Amino acid sequence: MIDFMRWDSVREARFQQKHFSEALKMDADAPANALEHPMRMSIWYGHDWLRAYECASMILRNTPAFGGPDAMKASYCRVERNMEHPKESWRYFLFEPEFLENIGLEHPSRWGQSSKWAPLYDLTL
């Protein structure tokens, strides 16, 4: 599950990199104060894979899936490789949180994010 959570965070970081870049291009004629947040988020998320691994590492801080950018990359590559094979992809199936709690396990969505109240662009490695 840790690999899967890292993979998901890296995918989300890559999505946000593209999203904020496109948002700035589409809203280029908007007032400067309206572009402040997208600009800061675009700078924080960056534009390359290394920065996506760093962002995932910062977002997962203080969770069981925390690790450095190199751990994020290794987990991302491992999940991508395993998802190509039908038998291996089943290992990433997530049960309902209620079911896991009934048998004494914690669902990854219940791990919480340590930085959910802080603006992302204030996080550092």
Automatic annotation (TrEMBL):
Please identify the protein, giving its name as recorded.
Uncharacterized protein
Q: Which domain of life is it from?
A: Bacteria
